## 1
Amino acid sequence: MFIPDQNRQQAVFDRLRLGILSGTLPAGTRLPPTRVMAEEIGVARQTVVLAYERLAAEGYVRARTGSGTYVAPDLPDAAPTPASVPRVAASDLSARGARLAMIPAHASNPVTNLATNLTPNVPTNLTPNRAANEATSGAAGADSPVGSLLAGGLPAHDMFPAQAWLRCTARVLRGMAPDLAGYPPPQGLPELRQQIAAHLAATRGLLADPDCIVVTGGTQQALRLAADLLLDAGDAVWVEDPGYIAGRGALLAAGAVPIAVPSDSEGLDVAAGVHLAPEARLALVAPSHSTPLGGALPIGRRLALLDWAARANAWVLEDDCDSEFRWEGRPLPPLATLDRTGRVIYCGTFSKTLAPAIRLGFAVVPAPLVPAFVRARTLMDRGSSALSQAVLAEFMRQGLLAPHIRRMRTEYAARRQVLLAALTRHAPAVTPIAAPGGLHMVVRLPDGCDEAAAVRACRARDLSVAPLRAYFAGPPRMAGLVIGFAGTPAALAADLCRRLAASVRT
C-alpha cells in the first residue's frame, strides 16, 4: 500500500481522506490512536500524527481532548467519483450458482424457477486429483488435535478479552430483547458490516462498501458459499501446494477439481498455474501469508494473478489469513486493493484475532454478486447469531479491537522467539522454517524420519502437531511437522521441545 522513500504522510492522509469521503469511515467514527495506526500500517508514529493534524486542519476530523479523533459530521468536499466500475454481472454465476440464486427463500418472495433452463457445463476430461483427496482426508488429524499444546493456527485462550466482551454483551442485551424473537438479516447486521468496513479501511487500506460485505460463519463458510455459487462440478481451480486444507476441502465439496500449483517462499507460483491450467475457473490464494510455509506474494506475482483472472474470466478467492500477525517487514496490503475488474472476493475472519468459537467472518463481494450470496446464505442457515454479531459490533464501536490485536501481536512475537530458541537448544534434530507471519511454523524432520510415526509419537506425548504431508494437494516435497506457538505459554516451551525431540528420536 505504501511505497518506501516517498511521502508516507501524504499516503496516510490520502487513504483516510478517501475512506471518509467514500463513507467507509462515516461521520462520528473514532479513528485508531496514532500509535496503533502507525503499528498497523508500518510507519513512524509522527507520520500518522502529522496526517491526523492535516485532516483536522482541513476539516475532515475533529479531535476531542481525552477521547480521541473522530470523523467530522460536515465534510469540506464531496466524495470522489470511483475510478473504475467492476466489469462483472450476475450472469457470471455458475449454472449451479444461478439455480441457487433463483430458489425461493421466503414464502413472501416467490421467484420464477428457471432451473430447468440452466444446464451446467461440466467438462468430461477432468477428474478429481487423487493426491488432493488423500491429503484432505488425511488432514482430519491436523484440524482435530488431541489437545492444544503446539496446535497450529489457534489463538491463545488466556488472552481472550473476557471482561470487555461481557460488558459489551450486557450492554447489547439491554437493547435488543425485541430482536431475539426474529431471525437476523442473512447478510449480517448493518452495524457490524459498517464496523468491518471501517476496520478494513483503517488497518488494511481496503475501501469496502458495507453493502458489499456478507457476514459469515468464519472464512470457511465464505469459501464454501463462493464455491457453490461460482463453480460447477468438474471446474478446475488453482490451490496452493502446500496450502490451506479446509479451503481445498470447500472446493472439493463443491465438486471442483483442484490443480496443485506450487507455493514457495513467495507464495503461489502464478506462472506455474498458468502453465498447468490456464482456463481454470478460480484460484484460492492467501497472498499475505500462505499456509503452512508462510510465503507472501510479491507485487509482480500479484499483478500477474490479477492479469490472469481478467484474461481467463476467472475468480480469485483471497483468504487474508493471519494478516494481523506479521513478524518480519511491514504489513502487506490485501490483493483486493489492486483489483480493478471486480474479480477478487476478499475473505476475513475474527477466529484468530478473537476466538474461533464465536464463528464470525466476512466476505467482501463484488456488488453484482451480493444478492446471490445473500440468497445462498439464507438457504444455508438464515444467518449468523444476531447476539454474537451485535456484541462484536459493540466491541469494535468502542475501539477495543485494535488495542486487543496489538496486545496479542506483542505476546505472540515473544512466544515465537522463545519457542524458536527452545527448538534450537532442545530439539536440534529438527530444522524450523520460521514464517514471517502467522501463528504457526514448520519444522523439517531429519532425513529418513517417518513423518506419520513422528506425529503419532508426538500425540502420545500430548503434542498437537500436524503432518506437513496433509497440506500438499500433490506429492509432498518435504517431510515435517506444523506446530503452533500462539497458544503455547513461554514457560512451557522448553519442556514441549524436549518432548518433541524425544518423539522424533523414536
## 2
Amino acid sequence: MKPGLFRRLILPGFAFKACVIGGGYATGRELAAFFLPSGPWGGLLGMAVAAVVWSAVCSLTFIFALQTGSRDYRTFFKHLLGPAGPLFEISYVSAMVVILAVFAAAAGAIFAGLTGAPTVVGSLLLMGAITFVVTFGNDSVERVFGYVSVFLYATYAIFFVLALTHFGRQASAAFASAVPAKGWVVGGVTYAGYNVIGAIAILPVLRHMRRRRDALVAGLLAGPLAMLPAVLFFVAMVAFYPAIQNQLLPSDYILSQLGLPAFRVLFQLMILAALLESGSGFVNAINERISAIQVRRRGVPLPRLGRLCVTLAVLTFSVFVATRFGLVQLIANGYRWLSYAILAIYVLPLVTIGAWRLWRARGTGLAVDPLVGAATEA
C-alpha cells in the first residue's frame, strides 16, 4: 500500500483505535463492564452497535473537519457550536483526565504484577513515556500509532488462537447457553459514547487527507479497526463467563489460565504499548489546540519546551486522580456521565447541525462557515 494512501485512509483508523483501546479495553475491564452483562451473544451485538456508531460519527467528524479546515478541537467546535464551543472544552479536559487516570491505574497494576514494584512506579513510567513521545509533536505520535498497531493486532491474533485451542469448548458452551441478550443496545451506545471522543482527539492526523472521499472511507474503516481486537478478546473472555466479570484485570486472569509465562509477559507489554499510544493521542490534542492559538497570535507553533510543560501538567494531575480513585471506580462511575455529556455536546450537534451544514455545502467545493452554516470560498 502506498504511504500516501496509508496516511489518508488507514492511519486515522489506527489513531482512533489508539484512543479507544486504552487501559480498560486492553485489559478487558471495559468489556466486562459494558458487554458481558448482556451475555455472550448480547455482548457481541453490543459491540456491533458500538462499531457502527464509531464509523458513523468518525465519518461525519472527518468530513466536517476537512470541510471547515479544522485540525484541532477548538477550531472544530467553533464551527460546530459557535459561542457554545467552550462547553466541549470542559467535557474534553474532564474526559481526558479520567481516561489518563484509567491508563495510569492500569499501567500501575500491570507493572506491579510483572515486577512486584509499587503501582505508582508503573504509572510514572507510562507518564514519562507519553511525555517523551508527545514532546516531539505530530510526526512522533503518528509513528507510535503505526508501530504499536502492528504489534497490537499481531498479539491479539495470537491470543485469540491460543484461547480457542485451550478453552474453545468452554467458549462454545457459553455461547450455546440460554443466557438472555438484554441491554446490549444501551451498553453499545454508552460504550461508544464516551470512546467516540477519540475522533476529536485525532484531528491532527487528518492533515494527510485530500478530499471528502478520504474522510468518508477513513471514518467507515475506523469502527471495525477499533473493535476487531475487542471482539477477539471478548470471545476468549466468554470461556470464563460469568465469573470473569468480577476480575480486576480479565486479561491477566485468562493469561494465568493459559499457563504460558512468556506470552503473558508479551501480552502485558502490548497493553502497556497500547496505553502509550492512547495517552499520546489524547495529550497531543491538547498541545495542538494550544499550538493553533499560538500560530494565530504569534505566527509560530508551540515549541517543544511548551509541549513538555503542558504534557507534564496534564499527566501529573491524572496520576493523582488514578492513585486517589483506582481503575474499577473510574470505569464504573466516571465513564458513564462523561458518555452522556459527550453525546449531548458533540454527537447530537454533529448529526444535526453539522450534517445539515455539510448537506447545504455538498458539491460546491465550499467550506462551511461557523455559526450560520453559510458557505464561503475555501
## 3
Amino acid sequence: MNTFTLVFLAALALTTGLRVWLALRQIRYVSQHRDSVPAAFADSISLEQHRKAADYTVAKSRFSLLQIALEVVLVLGFTLAGGVDWLARFWGAHVGQGLLGNVALIASVIVLSGVAELPLDLYRKFRLEQRFGFNTMTVRQFLKDMVMQFALGAILGLPLLFAVLWIIASAGAYWWLYAWLLWVGFNLTILAIYPNFIAPLFNKFEPLPDGELKQRIAQLLHKCGFAAQGLFVMDGSKRSRHGNAYFTGFGKSKRIVLFDTLIKHLQSSEIEAVLAHELGHFHHRHVLKRMVWVFGMSLLFLWVLNLLMTSPWFFAGLHVGQMSAGAGFVLFFLVLPVFTLPLQPLSSVYSRKHEFEADRYAAEYAEAGNLISALIKLYRDNAATLTPDALHSLFYDSHPNAQQRVARLAAYVHN
C-alpha cells in the first residue's frame, strides 16, 4: 500500500475521531446542565427556554454526526474507492483530457457532492429547524433557492474555473501566483457587487423607515465617523425566525442590513448597541485582517497544490491513475480538511478576540447594558445554549460563550 495512502487514512481516522469526540462531549455536557439556568441569566431566561436551547443544541450536535459520516463516505468514495479516477476516465473518453475535460471533472464532483448532501439539507431545514419553530421556508422556496444558487454558481464559478485551469496549462512554474491574483480579484469583485446585484436575488431589501431607530442609527454613525450607502431591512423571516444584522460591501458600497426578525424582537436602543458592535469590527479593521488571513492561506494552499500537481505519489496514494490538473484540484480540496483541522482552534481563538474587541467598542459608543439585554434576547430567541462544553467551544465557536461575554460587558457597565 502506498505510504501516502496510510498517512491519509491515519489522518482521516484521527480527525474524524476528534470531531465525533467533541460532538459527544457537547451532547453530554449540555444535557447534564439542561435543568439549571446559569445564575447570571436566571432573571431573564426561564427554565423552559433554557431547556429548549439545550435540546436544540443537542439535536444539532447529533445531526453533525450524520454530516461527519457523510463527509467521510464522500471523501473515501471519491478517493480510495475510485470515484475521481472513474470520473476522470469517463470525461477523458467523452470530451478529452484537455481544459473541457478537467472542468467537467471538477463540476461533476461538485454536483454529485451536492446531490449526496441534499437529503441532510432537507432534514435540517424541514425536520430539525421545523421541530424547534425556526423554519419558515416552504419547500417551493427551498427548491427556488437551490436552483438560483446552482445557476449563480455556474455563471460565476465556471468562467473562473476555466481561467484558473488555463493559467495552470499556460503560465508555467508560477501559475499558482497568477491564479492567486485572479482569485483575490474575483473575491474583491464579488464583495463589491454582492449588495446591489447578488443579495437582491434572494431577499427583498427595503430602506429603513423614518423613526426613532433610524435617528438613533444615524447619530451612532455620525459619532463613529462611519459612512454607509444606506440602512436596509431584509425579509429574513421568509426563511427563518432567527434574527441577525450585518454590514456588507466595502468602500462606497457599504450598507447596513437589519433582519426584520431582529427589529421585531429588539428595542431601538438594543439594536443601536448591536450595530455599535458591528461598527467595532470596522473600527478595528477586523474585516480587512480576516481578508488578509484568508488570502494568505489561499496563497499557501495554491503553492502546496502546485507541488502536489507534479507528485505521482499524491495521485497514486489516492487511487487516481492519471495525473491531471482537474484531478489534482479535486483531490487536494477533498483531503485538505483532513490535514487542516488542527488550524480550526487558532481561527476560532482569533475570531473570539475580535468579538471581545468589538464588544468593548460598543460599550464605548453605545451602552454596554443595552448590548447585554440584546444578546440575552438573541440567545433566548435563537435558542443558543448558555452552557456549551468548554473544549467544543474552544475548538469551534467563533464567538465567546454567553457567560464569558456577558460577564465582560457587565464589567464595562460598572466601570
## 4
Amino acid sequence: MPFRIQLAVLWRTFVFSCATAILAASAIGQQQPDTPPVQPTNQDPAGDSPQSLFPHFKDTRFWLSGQANFIFQAHPDFHALYSGKNSLSPNYEKATSRVLTLYTGVRLNNSTELLVDIEEAGGAALSTGLGLAGPPDLDIVRNPSLSKVPYLGRGLVHKVFALSKDKVENQRSFLSLFEELPRRRLEIRFGKFSVPDFFDINSVGSDTHFQFLNWTTDNNGAYDYAADTRGYTVGVTADYGDRNWGFRFAETLMPKVANGIDLVWKPWQVHAENFEYELRHGVFPKKAGVVRLLAYTNAANMGIYRDQVIQAAAQDAIPEITAHSWHITRKYGFGINVEQNFATHLTAFARFGWDNGKTESFAYTEVDQTFAEGVGANGVWWHRKQDRAGIAFVSNAIKKDHQNYLAAGGNGFLLGDGHLNYGRENILESYYTVHAWRGIYLAPGLQHFVNPGYNRDRGPVVVPSLRAHVEF
C-alpha cells in the first residue's frame, strides 16, 4: 500500500478510535491538562514491546504509530482544617484527562532521521492540578485555558556519528528509527522535545501509558527541568554512548514565567543545562541494572523565597513570589536514578533528588528534595506477558525558605493552602495494567497521600484511578 494512502487510513482510524474511547471515558466520568506521557528509550528488561491495533511499517525508513491515553481519577471527601487558593479541594471530585499522539518519522540516510509528533491534550485534573507536590496524573494540562487544538509535540533532527565500526542492536521507537547503532557513537538531537525523553528515565517508572501515574514517581520531583506548560522545550542534546556507559548533555530554553507556555528566546540570558552519566552495571553481582547520575542548572526570571517573605513582612502583606522586577537567578540540583533486576521479570528502581530550593519552583513541580523507590513486574511471570504491575513509595520535601513562604500565605504555581503546618508529603502508589485485546490496555490504580501539599492539617487523601490506553 502506498505510504500516503496508508498514512490517511491510519490517521482516520486513529481519530475514529480516539473518539470512541472518549465516549467510553465519558461514561466513566465527566471530562472537564501538562506534561505529555514519556516513554523510556531503553528496552524494558521485564518484557516485550506492547502490542498495537495495527501492524507498523515493515519499511524501516519510516515510522507511523499512535497512542491514546485516558485517565479517570476521583477522590472522596477528606479532612482539612482550612483550604486556600491553591488547595486540593476537600470535597469529592472526579476528572478525566486525555492525551492523543500521532508519532511519525523518516530516516533520511544511514545516520540522519527526522521525527515529528502531533499531539492533542485535554480533559481535566482534580482541583485543576493544584494542591499536591506530587499530582496524581502526569497527563493533565496544568493550564486549563490553553487551546484544545492539536499542536506540535516533538520536532527533532537526529544525527548519529559513528565512532566505531561494530554495531549493537537498537529497539526502534518513535525516538529512534535505527535497527542498529555503532557501539561507540555520538548522537546529536536538535529541535523541540521533552527533556525526560532522554534524561532521568528508567524501565520501571517513566511511562504514564503503562506504568505509574504520579509526577514524582515517573520523574525526579526535584528535577525542575526546562519545559513549557505542556512539558516541552527547544534545544540541543549531545549523547555519547559506549557498550557499558554513556554521557549526555542538553542545552535548552526556559519559560518566561513559572508554568508558562511561552519560552524565552534569549539563550545568552535564560537557559538550562542538563548533564547525566549512565553506567550500565547492576548494583548486585551478575544482575543487570543501570545507575544514572544527574545534574542540572537553570537560569531564569525566578523569584527568591526569602527575599519575598522579608519584603512582605515589612509591608504587613502576603508574600508573592512573582512580585519582583526582571532579574536572572539560578537554580541547580542533582539526582541519582538506579534500576536493578532481581529476576527476569522483576525490576526495582530508586531515585533521589535535591535542588538548592532558594529560588522559585519554576517548570516542573514544587519539590526541593525527593526519595522514591518501587518495583515493577511483567506478566510473563504469571503467564500474561503483556500485563504489568507495580508499587512505589515517594517522599517529597521543600527547604525552609519555601516552607516559610507557604506558611506566610504565599502561593506557588501549584501549592498554597493559606497557611502551613509542615510535614513531608508521602505517597504510596500501585497499579495493574491489563492487556484487554490487541492494542487495548486497562489499568486500575490507587494512590494514597499523607500530608498533601506538605500540610499536616489536611488529609490523608486516597485517589483511585482507571486508565484506558490504546496503542495504534
